[in-house]
Amino acid sequence: MKATYRRAVLIGLLMSLACPLVMADRQEDVTVFHWWVSDGEHASIEVIQRYIEARGIHWRDRAIAGSGTARFGDVLKAAVEAGEPPMASQVIGYDIHYWASRGELVNLDDIAREQEWDEVVPYGIQSLSKYDGHWYAAPINTHSTNWLWFNGNLFRRLGGVAPDTWEDLLSMLEEARKMDIVPLAIGQEAWEHTLLFEAVAAGAGGAEFYRKAFLELDPTALDEELLLTIFRRMSQLREYLDEDFSGRTWNEATQLVLSGDALLQVQGSWVDGEFSYHGYIPGQDYACFRFPDTQGMFLFNSDQYMLFKDGPGNDETRREFVHTLMSIDLQRDVNISSGAAPARVDVPRDDFNLCGRQAISNMRSTNMRRTLMGSIAMGNANPPEVKTSIYRVISDHLYGRIDDEEAVYRLRETIMKHSAGS
Ligand code: GAL
C-alpha cells in the first residue's frame, strides 16, 4: 500500500517536472486554511502541498482542528472580518452557500467549464459546490460515512462474516462485550454521534425515508413509530460504548480499533486514511463494510476548497491552484492517502486499496441511482442552523440526558420548524 502510494506521488511529481512552464516560480504565497490534523489527514494535506509547490506556488497553511466545522468556521470568520482572509479554505456542505451568499467567494465557472466539472462531479456534490447556478467551490473528494471499521483479528475471532443485518451487528457487539473489549468505539463530538445516528436512520428507514426526512425536511416522512425504532436502536448501541467516550477525539477512537482494544468504529472513510498511514492493510489488519441495510447508499461528505475574493493570490495563481485540485492525478493521490473516493467519477481505481476501490464503485453506482445523499453529520444535508439543532437532540440522547420518546418529539419539532412549508 505504502509503496503504491509513493509510486503514485512520484509519478505525479515527474509529470509536473515534465512541464517547465508550469514550474516557473510565481513567487506567490498561497495561504490555505484547513482542518486536516490527524496523522492520516496530515499525510493527505502534504500530498496537496507537494502538487501545489510542484507548480511553483509557495504554500503556507494554517491547520485548525474542527471536523464538525463550528470551531473552524469561527476562526475563518474572524480572519475574514479582520480583513485577512486566506486565499483558499477547506469547506464542506452548506457552509459553501453561507460564504457564497455573502459575496465573498471567487466564481470558478471558467475553470469548471474548461475541466468539464458538470460532467464528472456527482450531482449531489454539485448542488453544494454551486450557489445560484455558479461554481464557488472545487470538490476534491467524496468521503462516505455509513461504514463499519473492524479490527481484523477481532473480526476473525468473531467468525469473520460481515454483519448483513441490524441483528447480526448486535450479536457481534454482544460477543465483543463478552470478550471484555470495547464493542463500539466513538468520540466525544456531536458530529460523531450524528454520524452514528444517520447510519442507523438510513438502515432502519431506507433511502427514500432518509431523503425525505433529512434532505427535504418533509414533515410527512416523520413517521413516529419509525423514529422511535431509530432512537431505540441508538439506545441499544449506547450500551456498547465505554464510559470514557466523552473524553476522546474520533481518531483516538480509531486508535482503540487499531490496537485491538475495541472491535469496531462507525465512521467516515477518513478512518481508512488513518489505518493506511499506520501501514495497516485492509482485508488483513482491518475490515470495512457498509453499515447493515445501507449497502445501496452512500452518505457523502465532500471536502471542497473555496477561494476568497479579498484573499491573497493573483488570478493566475488561483487558476493554477484550482486546476491542480481538480486534476485526475491529484485526486487519485490525495485520496489514496485520505481514504475517500475522488470527487471525479473518472479517476481510475487501480492504485487504491480494497476499501478505496469499494468506495469508488459505491460512489459511481449510487450516483447513478440517486442514493448518494448528503451526510447530516457533516453538514452536507442541511444548512448549519438545521445541522446544529439536530446535533443537540442526538447528542443529548446519546449521553442519556433525554429518553427515546423525548428525542423523537424534539427531532420532529426541529425538522418541522425548518421545513419549507413552515
Ligand atoms: C471532515 C472532513 C474529512 C475528515 C473528517 C475527520 O469534516 O471533511 O475529510 O477529515 O472531518 O476529521
- Give the strand line-up of the largest sheet: 2-1-3-13-6
The major β-sheet equals: 5 strands, mixed
Ligands bound to this protein structure: beta-D-galactopyranose
The share of residues in helices is: 40-55%
Distance between the termini: 51 Å
Strand content: 5-15%
The helix/strand class is alpha/beta
**What's the number of domains?**
2
CATH classification, class level of the largest domain? Alpha Beta
Uncertain ranges: 1-24
The total of helices stands at 19
Residue-averaged pLDDT? 93
CATH homologous superfamily title of the largest domain:
Periplasmic binding protein-like II
Beta strand count:
15
Radius of gyration: 21 Å
CATH architecture verdict of the largest domain: 3-Layer(aba) Sandwich
- The fold-level CATH name of the largest domain is D-Maltodextrin-Binding Protein, domain 2
Overall outline? globular
Quick overview of this protein structure:
This protein folds into two domains: 2-143 and 300-367, D-Maltodextrin-Binding Protein, domain 2 (3-Layer(aba) Sandwich), CATH 3.40.190.10; 145-299 and 376-418, D-Maltodextrin-Binding Protein, domain 2 (3-Layer(aba) Sandwich).
Structure, described:
By secondary structure, this protein is α/β, with parallel strands linked by helices. The protein has two domains: 2-143 and 300-367, Periplasmic binding protein-like II (D-Maltodextrin-Binding Protein, domain 2), CATH 3.40.190.10; 145-299 and 376-418, 3-Layer(aba) Sandwich (D-Maltodextrin-Binding Protein, domain 2). 51% of the residues lie in helices and 14% in strands. The protein has 19 helices and 15 strands. It has helices at residues 2-17, 20-23, 39-53, 70-81, 95-101, 109-114, 117-120, 123-129, 152-157, 166-178, 190-215, 224-238, 250-259, 270-277, 315-325, 328-338, 354-369, 384-398, 404-418; strands spanning 29-34, 58-63, 88-92, 130-131, 134-135, 138-139, 141-144, 147-151, 182-185, 262-266, 286-290, 298-301, 303-307, 341-342, 372-374. Strands 2-1-3-13-6 form a five-stranded mixed beta sheet, sandwiched between helices. Helix 11 packs antiparallel against helix 12, helix 12 packs across helix 19 and helix 18 (384-398) runs antiparallel to helix 19. It is globular and about 60 Å long. The termini are far apart.
